[in-house]
Queue: 4 jobs
Job 1
Amino acid sequence: AKGRGRARLEQFNDELHARAQKRVQIESDLRAALRASQLFVEYQPQVRLKDGRVVGVEALVRWRHPRHGIIPPGDFISVAEDCGLIIKVGRQVLQESCRQLAEWTKLMPGRTLAMTVNVSPRQIMEPAFVGELRQILADANIDPATLCLELTENVMMSATEEVARLLNEIRQLGVFIAIDDFGTEHSSLSRLRDMPAEVLKIDRSFIDGLSSEPGDTAIVSSILSLAYAMGKHTIAEGVEKREQAAMLLRMGCEVAQGYFFSRPVAAEQIVPMLSKALWQ
Ligand code: C2E
Ligand code: CA
Ligand code: CA
Ligand code: CA
């Protein structure tokens, strides 16, 4: 039994070692990727439920790796967070999506489209963040009110004064703030009241069970009434079926995104979607 225990421990150590090595490899490849412009951004349309029009897009980063092909963010964002490269990754994504938004805005004067960008805790805590954001907005020459930054509940609710000050500075620039994956982590309703966030994104896990799981339906409906009572907007994510979209519309959700409307796509593929309804 002792021998077996040792064998298991060795196997465990090997696995830890392999995982650590993999992270080191990702880190050094990512450094090269930043220099060689291997990161690119896809956009997923956000659809106004009452008429099916695209009112915004969410920017989602991808990595075109020279040997491993396209790597999704789930496979490298956490490494980037740990080693600090997220600051550069996040800056590139923000720059590229603001530049892209400016291009689309020129194509369709008189119509506003909102750009939503995910921001990591470490990225936003970087002292230079707000200054850079201001610069990026100025360089791209876009209306700050067309940009929305998405933060997860954890950052939003980590009640430090520093976070509160930061969020207020961002709001003062005119940029909007959304709480991502709402309902999955710890949210305190009293903190939500004081939070300078205008948008709640209802997590995919609750949308999955809409109509089939009474519990999920109840959660979605309470998030919607809470948001309404607090004067906040809602976006449902991960809508994969027509019946989910129909139900969200009936329940009073304004905007939704998900594979039912469109997967995240290259920028060029967004343009034709801007002039039609993605569902009715
Ligand atoms: P997220 O912000 O919650 O983004 C939604 C994820 O769900 C995206 O995965 C999207 O492609 C996927 N999705 C959209 N609609 C559906 C649907 O109907 N069904 C299902 N099953 N999935 C759907 P993706 O692109 O792999 O991104 C994963 C996560 O990586 C994001 O989750 C976000 O937390 C993070 N991420 C992506 N881009 C960035 C970035 O530029 N910066 C930072 N810090 N994080 C990012
Ligand atoms: Ca997001
Ligand atoms: Ca989300
Ligand atoms: Ca998520």
Job 2
Amino acid sequence: MYTQGLLHAKDDDRAAPEPADRLARFQARIDAEEKIEPNDWMPEAYRRTLVRMISQHAHSEIVGMLPEGNWLTRAPSLRRKAALLAKVQDEGGHGLYLYAAAETLGVSREELMEQLLLGKAKYSSIFNYPTLSWADIGAIGWLVDGAAIMNQIPLCRCSYGPYARAMIRICKEESFHQRQGFEIMLTLARGTSEQKAMAQDALDRWWWPSLMMFGPSDTQSQHSDASLRWKIKRFSNDELRQKFVDATVPQGRFLGLAFPDADLRYDEAAGHWRFGAIDWAEFRAVLAGNGPCNRQRLAQRSAADERGRWVRAAATAHAEKRRARAAE
Ligand code: BYC
């Protein structure tokens, strides 16, 4: 949609030094809360940051379909199956809006997909963990979508127009996802002792990886300063992580489940739930490609890409035929 009207900057324009007055005018627009649109001038580093973030986000959506898709054939009832199917389809749709938003910055979807399949692009660490039981579908909705909403609501106010607009619809859908997950957890937590144990086991395994979704601590985050200055990000990684913990701990207590953190305690004076140390070595291992499911996820995505090749070829051939007929 956007790419058709995009006036692509030439590569040599991008390499040219960026005049200080232009940079200052750009920052003034950001400070005045104006939206930056695809054909507006932007610093090359701003453009690159957005391509990185939006494409990582798009990849996360489509890789995120895999662990949940794993349970589509084994959902415990027709109602659960229909809701999960809708959720997994929503994630595919989110990927599409996000790839379209990234394309407005002058990269093609094919390029981005190639980077993913070659293992050169990142996607969220969380999707490298396995879904071992039905309760994991509840935990993903409650915790992973809950963390996603906390991170993504501020992105609705991102300074780049196409990303901000894509996020508005995505966040509406994510809030339905979060509720369907919490409802699964509530049903299990109020069920038999075996069902409650399943819910507890899922919380035990998904809690820490959910906290890692927010990225490295502020002292280790390389990109936060620039992204906050450009109003791409509105809160730091640690601020969002804390907001998530504060919102989620009361929900877990309502479920009657225990968090796998002996150091978790309420800090009355600060009004925050304090939590224990995150295992950053595990986070780094997952990012380096050595999480429990990294290889499996990429192999599945590659196979899906291969299987869809004839569909893309057929759609392209059909579009060309129509264009030729219209030109006759
Ligand atoms: N996993 O300087 P930092 C979803 C990387 S989708 C992997 O703090 P930044 C959902 C980071 O990319 C969830 N990598 O970076 C979908 C950087 O590496 P590079 C995805 C991570 O960008 C389906 C390096 O670590 N959400 O929720 O300022 C179903 C240093 O980090 C992670 C988004 O993508 C991670 N967890 O902040 C259900 C939202 N964390 O690029 C749910 C948009 C950090 O230099 N993205 N890294 O090689 C963001 O908000 C930010 O990019 C992040 C990281 C907060 C994730």
Job 3
Amino acid sequence: DAATDYETILVTRYGPALVVTVNRPRALNALAQQVVAELLDLTGRLVEALPSVDAPAAGEWVCRGVIVTGTGEKAFVAGADIREMSGMTPEQAEAYARDMHRVTLNLEALPVPVIAAVNGFALGGGCELAMACDFIYASENAAFGQPEVSLGLVPGFGGSVRLQQRVGVGIARELIMTGRRITAAEAHRIGLVNQVFADHAALLDAARDTVDTIAAQAPTAVANAKATMNAVAHRSVADGLDVEAAAFRAAFTTEDSRIGRDAFLSKESASFSGR
Ligand code: HXC
């Protein structure tokens, strides 16, 4: 409801998805401190609100996913705001980075899928915002990169951690040390991007369709699967399997799992309760 108070992000509905659009087209949607503050407020509210929407009133709209994108056809997000950063002390720069870290952790904490719809430049902080989403779709004109070393900086919004996880150690190090920009096609080839679409409209449609597909699954299971994958990301195989075993056990306590198994055995389609 507070969505209308934001000045640098737009929050709209598209099918079952909430679309969060970074909206500073004159600066190629760069993440000025105000954008970070507004993303932090919004994502904090979503973390609070979403776990409690499992039993909506009839006809009530329920958020089944979040799509993150940028205004226009040119840029998703062209990075941190270089103009603002040039006036920051090291302490202010760290606080700026830590605030954006909280945004990325909030996106990961959401119990619904978060899809980055990368519609153009996703550089530096833009690439890092995309990587905080569960997965990335892109338009053909998208471009990715971590150009911080060209500015005498290093990735500050999570890129040092998440790029290695996404594409592996060798490619991540090459990209971060060269600052090289890559096309959507190359990003697709190295596994950073799942699918590439002709333009922004097709990209948003595809993201919405995927949210629809996921919304037809058991909501408790989707949330559990995401939380489990987050929890095991930094663990050894043995520790990760322990976490997975507990999650699998927890899935068995849900009504959704009973509904899903009964539907399969009676050859009917499942209608999940979200409990
Ligand atoms: C502030 C930016 C910006 C940015 C673009 N603009 N990127 N302003 N911060 N990151 C502004 C330009 O200054 C310009 O404003 C307008 O947007 C249009 O950009 P142009 O450069 O004129 O467009 P173009 O020539 O097409 O080049 C597009 C571009 C280039 C290749 C994306 O803008 C670019 O290289 N931007 C910087 C990309 C980058 O290095 N990002 C990483 C930032 S570091 P005016 O007023 O002149 O029209 C980072 C660190 C994260 O993200 C961690 C921090 C803690």
Job 4
Amino acid sequence: LERTFIAIKPDGVQRGLIAGIISRFERKGYKLVAIKLIVPSKEFAQKHYHDLKERPFFNGLCDFLSSGPVLAMVWEGEGVIKYGRKLIGATDPQKSEPGTIRGDLAVVVGRNIIHGSDGPETAKDEIALWFQPSELV
Ligand code: ATP
Ligand code: MG
């Protein structure tokens, strides 16, 4: 079955949004197959966002991701990669639709509270980066 990597970023954890976000995925019908709270190192954040290393915001983005606890998760279900992105909403919360997680809960692109894998290849790579196979139920 399809799986995706979802992470609540330090701003989402700090703001107390964990339960509300998990609830959206659960109510939709997706299954939680792995979860842990970790503070990633900056080096780890750079690995996670390696595709963006040429972007001007890369350094600040990695500093931010490593600034506090991140709730790392793997969710499973039909279409979960694409539909997970739909639940999350557009990258820039000014453009995310109301009803999406970012649309409802965030204001600026640098503090958009949640990450979701953008395709099958990145889902596979990100799950392998954040979790040991034994941590997946
Ligand atoms: P994520 O990978 O976190 O799920 P995304 O796939 O919607 O987000 P990406 O293009 O992968 O968007 O960008 C990764 C993250 O980099 C964004 O979530 C955002 O926090 C940050 N980011 C993207 N564009 C900008 C920007 N123009 N200025 C500042 N930060 C940005
Ligand atoms: Mg992305």
